[in-house]
Amino acid sequence: MGPARLPGRPRSRAPGELRRPRGLHVDAAPPGRDVLPRPPGRAHQRPAGRVGTESRSGLMHMFRVRDDYRRSQLAIAALFLFLGFQYATWVSRLPALRTRLDLGEAEIGLLLMVCGIGAAVSFPLVTWLMKRLGSRMLAIVSALALGAVLLALSVVPDYPVTLLVVFCDGVAVGCLNVAMNAQGAALEERFRRTTMSRLHATFSGGSLLAALLASGVNAFTGTLAVHFGLAVALLVLVLGLARPGLLREDRDAGPAPAAQEPAAEPAQEPARDLAGAGAGAGTADGRKRRRLSLPSRVTLWMGLAMVFGTVTEGAMNDWSALYLKDVVHAAPSLAPLGIAVVSVMMVLARIFADGWRSRLGDGVIVRAGSLLAGCGLALALLVGGLVPTLLGFACVGAGVAAVTPCVYVAAARQGSDALSLVAAMGTTGLLAGPAMIGFIANGSGLTWGMAAVAASAAVVSLCATRIRWPAVHRAPADEPSAAGPAPGGALHEA
Q1: CB 376: neighbour CB atoms within 10 A?
Q2: 440-446 contacts, C-beta under 8 A, 24 or more apart
Q3: Per-residue confidence of the chain (494 residues) as pLDDT tens digits?
């Protein structure tokens, strides 16, 4: 054991020098101020602003933007799922409603028509509500109204009240349809990433989930109150989870430069974000001009594309099974394959369509897809037979899958008025299309009726040539597409 060492005077240390044995850290202090050591328990904590935080903050910023995108994407997808689930829930129980109210086929047809009429005539209300509330609040309010409709349908006493409730359902569907598409377009615009096709695919997913729930509940009880009450509870849960992620701003009230006729905006007018959907807009004269202005030529071409696109989609859903049974003479067990093939191909195409949009552009996708639908169906009608017909139906499902999402995005770039008008025209096509095909089939045969469907798809391709679509821009491999806007308003794959 060595001699004892007496504590000596410690040597002076420069300010900022680290005393690692005692766990003390001394920061450099300004002249005239004391330098106090840190407590030993915090000796190895790195203060904010030290070396390395710059790289970590940049990395965390990138992940934070990406998380914001995914959160909003899931929230908006929940709205699409909500609408598909709600509509399919009560439509799947039409047999129970018919038995309960003692309705005939004509009364059921009128019930469905009233719902479509409510959605079609909701255009002025939707436009006003979008300006007053914005798409986020309108989506929440209309979703709550749709839940109330289900509860009302479970206790309606007679047919007139049912017509009134279903009309309100159509109006709420029109409101939510415009609001959720405005949110989807805003998501693409804010993060410069294509996602609208996948959002529309979740609508089909919601319909499928509603059908499964209806089948499961009906196996235990046929009571509408139990089924619709459970459905409303699930819908409220979905809406509650989606609400925090919805965008608080969606689209500018005016047209986007890439999708409008050339027109100069005043340089001094402050730019607005995309989600106000018309809330607050410049001077009183500017608001008056917007109220009195007619739709632009671009908006009308978009509306026509939406009309004929929804005519094609709706007619395939309503007439494909009858065509297989009456014209192709397929077995009754094979007749439902028509709508199954169309639906499956549409969902698959919408899942992958966003990647095609980011590489080729919306215009190419709409023109090529509608031509594929029209030519494929026309060739199937000429050849005949079960397999060629199913292949033609598959072409229709794959071809028209991206038409509606792309037109909604283009319409949203024109502002909330254009989006509301295009949505109303799409609802009109979805409502009137199957009836128009029925009139043609009654006079000339179902083959000519399906030929009109092929012609409708070809008209969509013609309309698409008159629409100015967003430009395509490919970001470098090391540039995260969610980190900021791409030049020229271009969109990348989500």
Answers
A1: 22
A2: 441/319, 446/319, 446/322, 446/323, 446/326, 446/327
A3: 455 444 445 455 544 444 444 443 444 444 444 444 444 444 444 444 444 444 444 433 433 435 788 899 999 999 999 998 998 888 888 888 888 888 887 788 788 788 888 888 888 898 899 889 999 999 999 999 999 999 999 999 999 999 999 999 999 998 999 999 999 988 888 888 888 888 988 988 888 888 788 888 888 887 889 999 999 999 999 999 999 999 986 444 444 444 433 333 333 333 334 444 444 444 444 454 445 467 788 889 999 999 999 888 888 877 888 888 888 888 877 877 887 888 888 889 988 888 888 888 889 999 999 999 999 999 999 998 899 999 999 999 999 988 988 998 888 888 888 888 888 888 778 777 777 888 888 888 889 989 999 999 999 999 999 887 876 644 433 334 434 444 444 555 55
Exposure of 60 in the CB half-sphere (CA atoms within 13 A)? 6
* Helix axes 337-360 and 403-414, enclosed angle (nearest 10): 50
Residue with tokens 């159509």: 170
Backbone angles phi, psi at 466, to 5 degrees: -100, 0
- Helix, strand, or coil (residue 106): helix
Distance CA 252, CA 138 (A): 16
At 380, give phi and psi (nearest 5°).
-65, -35
Asked if 89 and 231 count as a contact pair (C-beta separation under 8 A), the reply is yes
- 0.85 exceeded by the pTM? no
Which tokens belong to 359?
A: 């590489």
